Amino acid sequence: MTRPNNNTLKNVEFYAACFAFSVALFVVLAAVGHVYPFGDNSFLTDDLKYQYIDFFAWFHRVLLGEANLRYSFSQGLGMNTWGLYSYYLASPFNLLCVLFPADKLTLFVFAIAALKLGCIHISSAWYVQKRFGLSKPAAFLLSASFTFCSWIVSNLRNPLWIDCLILLPVCAYGCYELIHEQRMARLVIATALNVTFCWYTAYISILFLCIFVLVEFVDYVAEQGFSWKLMLDRALRFTGAIVLGLLLSAWTFLPTILAMSKGGPVLALGPLLKTSLKSLIRGFLPGMWVNNDSTPQFYCGVIMMLLAVSLLFNRAVSIKTRIATLVVTIILVASSVLSPLEYIWCGMRVPNGFYSRTAFLLNFFALWAAGYALQALKDHPKLRRVSRPAVILPLLALTAIELFANAHSMWNQLYVGYSENNNSVYVATATSTVKAIQDDDPTPFYRIDRTTTRADSAALNEGLALGYDQLSSYSSANNPQAIALLNSLGYSSVGEFSTRYAEPILAVDALLGVKYTIVEQAPAGYVAIPEPGDTASAEYVNPYALNLGIAASKDIQNCTLEGENPFEIQNDLYCKILGHNVELYTEINATKTADSQDAKQWSVTVPAGSIGYLYINKDANAGSYWPVALTIDQRTINNEAWRFDNNIRQIADASDGPSSHTVSLEVAEGYSDMPQSNEPVFYALNLEVFEQIIDELKTGEFVPAVFEDGNVEGEYTAENDCNLLLSVPYDDGWSVTINGAAAELTPAADKGMSCLSVQKGTNKIVMTYKTPGALAGLTVSLATAAALIAAGLYTRHKKSRR
Predict the structure, then answer these.
(1) How many other C-beta atoms lie within 10 A of the C-beta of residue 490?
(2) 291 pLDDT band (50/70/90 cuts)?
(3) E strands along 143-235, which residues?
């Protein structure tokens, strides 16, 4: 039995120490900051609270066999979930969530954050040792500085982005091997893993590597000499490595491309400068980060930054290498300052939130430059003592204190305002409320939505987490056609990439099968359910809710909805379904009684037998972040027209006679003025006309026997040949059979819904979802892997014969 040599044991001990240090520092930060599980300050903040925790809950259900990885009806009518998985959930660390109870997923997030920090420390320490031959104390100091740089500490609330920091040092060493030794294998495998774990950060990393490999090349030719043949050889090898990495990951990358290529709109560029000179300088200093959109997270330890800067002035280093280092540094700083560069780094989209997403690249480049500087000092006869433990260890102690103080300052800004107790109460209440409805109504199809959420003014994903079907969605990986339809119908503003069910809308709730709603105020047309499940809101049932499918006219196929506002669009949708004109909504005349810069007011009379509604047509220049305070009689909505909160709002329920109401717009809290072109439109839903339409549509309903994620089955008896309109978004992944024969699913309502042509008599319908591109991607990955293995075996065989 071969015993491990002494160097191997020392390396294992060293990397174990790196891991233990980072985990311990993380735990101490939590204990001092009273962050759960060491206090009631919740680790959930920003999108970790609004999105990711619900996605983890969904993935927990997937791993337990309670949900489908490929498709879900629990968000925005229905969506291909491969993009959701590959962007947010593909990290192998997330598999650990199955070990935690569903109500303890905050603890799971805390645990994987600690594990990822430990792995970043190991990876970066390995890199600087391997690349620069540094002593263990020196490698420990630099890798600790990188692990607890401001970007990583502040973005633990984005756990999906952190795996990239583990793999980036491996990719960087792969570039070094490629330039110096013409070896590609490490870069190929690391690129494939990077894309597999999170394609978004992989895209950013690959762009960076295209620049970084040039620095390594310049450094190489400074010693070996330049030739065009050498440059072409390395350029082809680097390109080949990246392409092979993408091909190896095609099993997930190809279906991701197909899922995400239908994504939301590309936003227009904002102001050229993203920050001020003062904020830019603050970004390099410890304890100076401010949780806003103006301070980049460039700080990565004073010692490491000073070493990195010293490289530029070290005459022992080639002038070409120093110039290349300066140029790349300028590019990386500018990428967090100039909007056009940020736009390129973020996938030709303007990022919404989390300023300075690419600052980690500068942090890593500082690690490279500092390692290079220490290597130069180590090789200098007069400065060899600088890298000895007696010098490094005191610097390490000072750096640890400095890193802790900076991280503690950031945590005091991040993990406040939402307690773990509040989260636990929310999860328990929401779970029991939804379970009570589901136990009471075991039928296969209906939708539930709620206006009470984990946090106010955020479109969340409770349906994914708790296993019910809802309209609300807040994700970068949803079905954009479904979201566009929902927003055009009045659930949010047209153009938003997600939607929020902020208030019930009877006519479209009924059409889309929203049978139950959980709200704070009684919605018009709904019936209260006795003994509501929680004290903050009540449960209501929609007696008009239609089932999954209804008979519709041929006008609905491939149709585009038209109208100047959501009421007219709903009218148009119902007309196309019925095949004749119908005036579901009629406009109400409103008298403006006040009009100033700070306040507008209207007097509105709702006709007898009608439900009164309004919707604010937003100023085109208002964007997502210029709300108003909307008051309807005595009810005030503080942030109407803010991001997802631009919903059709109820003025009054139907009554036997006309009713008068007052509507006003004022400056929203925290704002100094309001958009002057934001004007409400007032409409009445004629309840008699609506009930007649619903009665007509109920005669041709399709009631599925099976309605599960990615699988729909049932029999539909048609009196005549007709179109069956389904409240399922059109998607290429659906395969359909009717009575055993293949059938074509066609788009309807701007692809937000879909249609089937059915014949007179009994139609046995089976719909199955298969992720587009999954089989082709798997084939490409397997073929690439086989080719690489064959090439490797051939090369080894060839060498052995020499």
Answers:
(1) 24
(2) low
(3) none
Distance CA 226, CA 118 (A): 40
How would you list the strands of the sheet with 711-718, edge to edge?
Answer: 706-708, 711-718, 761-769, 734-738, 741-743
For residue 672, give Cα distances in angstroms to 207, 594, 617, 626, 627. Answer: 41, 19, 20, 10, 11
H-helix or E-strand spanning residue 715: strand 711-718
Distance CA 458, CA 662 (A): 27
H helices present in 317-419, as ranges: 319-335, 339-345, 359-379, 389-414
Give 484-552 as a DSSP string.
Answer: HHHIIIIIS-TT-SSB---S--HHHHHHTTEEEEEESSPPTT-EEPSS-S-SS-EEEE-TT---SEEEE
From the list 574, 603, 735, 593, the residue with the least C-alpha distance to 682 is 603
Preceding omega of 442 cis (within 30 degrees of 0): no
**The length of the chain, given as a count of residues:** 802
Lowest-confidence pick of 514-523, 771-780, 788-797: 788-797
Instruction: Convert 242-257 to b/e letters by CB count within 10 Å (16 or more is b).
Output: bebbbbbbbbbbbbbb
Q: Return all residues near 355 (Cβ < 8 A) that are at least 6 apart.
A: 274, 275, 292, 293, 294, 295, 296, 336
Those residues with Cβ within 8 angstroms of residue 488's Cβ, 6 or more apart along the chain or in another chain: 494, 561, 566, 569, 750
Give yes or no for residue 728 having a pLDDT over 60.
yes
Q: Residue 381 — very low, low, confident or very high, per pLDDT cuts 50/70/90? A: low
Phi, psi (5° rounding) for residue 139?
A: -65, -40
**Tens digit of each residue's pLDDT (9 = 90 or more) over 177-224:** 999 999 999 999 999 999 999 999 999 999 999 999 999 999 999 888
Residue 141: both structure tokens together: 């100091």
∠6-11-14 over CA atoms, to 5°?
A: 125
Tokens 């607890």, residue located: 148
Phi, psi of 401 (to 5 degrees): -65, -45
pLDDT category at 313 given cuts 50, 70, 90 is: very high
**Residue 120 contacts residue 144 (beta carbons within 8 Å):** no
The least confident of 495-499, 656-660, 716-720 is: 495-499
Identify the burial level of 720 via C-beta atoms within 10 angstroms of its C-beta, where 0-12 means exposed, 13-18 middle and 19 or more buried. exposed
Range 384-391, long-range pairs (CB < 8 A, 24+ positions)? 387/134, 387/135, 387/138, 388/135, 389/135, 389/137
Alpha carbon 766 to its chain's center: 32
Burial class (CB in 10 A: 0-12, 13-18, 19+), 793: exposed
pLDDT in tens, 636-648: 998 898 878 889 9
Please determine, for residue 166, whether its predicted confidence score (pLDDT) is greater than 60.
Answer: yes
Distance, CA of 61 to CA of 76 (rounded, Å): 19
User: Is residue 586 within 8 Å of 684, Cβ to Cβ?
Assistant: yes
The CA–CA distances, whole Å, from 466 to 54, 207, 426, 469 equal 8, 38, 12, 9
Enter the tokens of residue 166: 């583990």
The label of the residue with tokens 């994700």 reads 475
* Dist. CA 708–CA 701, nearest whole Å: 18
Question: Does the pLDDT at position 548 exceed 50?
Answer: yes
Q: Are 492 and 644 in contact (CB under 8 A)?
A: yes
Q: What is the mean pLDDT of residues 146-156?
A: 96
Which residues are CB-contacts of 45 (< 8 A; sequence separation ≥ 6)?
Answer: 157, 414, 415, 417, 418
Place of tokens 């494939």: 192
> 290 is written with which tokens?
């401010």
- pLDDT, one tens digit per residue, over 88-115 is 999 999 999 999 999 899 999 999 999 9
Determine what percent of the chain is predicted with pLDDT higher than 90.
73
Q: Are 460 and 605 in contact (CB under 8 A)?
A: no
Q: Is the pLDDT of residue 535 over 50?
A: no
pLDDT in the model for residue 265? 45
